[in-house]
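User: Before I run my own analysis I want an independent prediction to cross-check against. Here's the chain; please return only the structure tokens and, at the end, one sentence I can use as a sanity check.
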Amino acid sequence: MKVYRAEDYTSMSRRAANILSAQVILKPDSVLGLATGSTPVGMYRQLINWYDKGDIDFSQTRTVNLDEYLGLAPDHEQSYRHFMQENLFDHINIRPENTHVPDGLAPDPEEECRRYNQIIAGLGGIDLQVLGMGHNGHIGFNEPEEAFELETHVVDLTQDTIRANARFFSSPDQVPRRAITMGIKSIMQARHILVVVSGADKADIVRRAFAGPVTPLVPASILQMHPHLSLVGDEAALSQL
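Assistant: Structure tokens:
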């Protein structure tokens, strides 16, 4: 595991963007596993900035996203497809057909999970997987005590996750109760994993995840076992490591 300490969120975002852009420059047809949430937004902004300057070309890049809410259309303002369009895809030259997000309106969610696993396999696997991390150590929507051996699957969101995501909706009642997410097995099969963390409120879970025992009670702790893991965080988030 390589740990990169940055002074603040802006520096953290730039460092993470450096790692991702190097992957694309060295392998233009890379398969990137992408994450949503507030933490990677700065990284995406930096990538857009470099694209605008002509420093990086995404025309051959393929992407697969970690997860999507069940019940939300792709154009719903809180869907993760909409998030990716707004924060990255609409601002770079990636081909729409090369971007993949689970279908939140799939009539058969279990079949959608199988289809998504086949997409990842058909692309040859994920070269670089970006991850944020929840306060309880969840990655994607893989909550504590979930099995490590799962691939893409349907999850019932915990009350803690629903409360955490309620700030993006008009009320907690509007937060979807289920989602499709890549499982831990899918994530661990990526050739390189890039974890981005920011803020003092993440310091305790970062310590538990990366300096504590490997346990399903802290899903991110399994990342300690990955042979090519990069952890990029600001000083506040890494203060207990």
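Sanity check: DSSP finds seven helices and ten strands in the chain.
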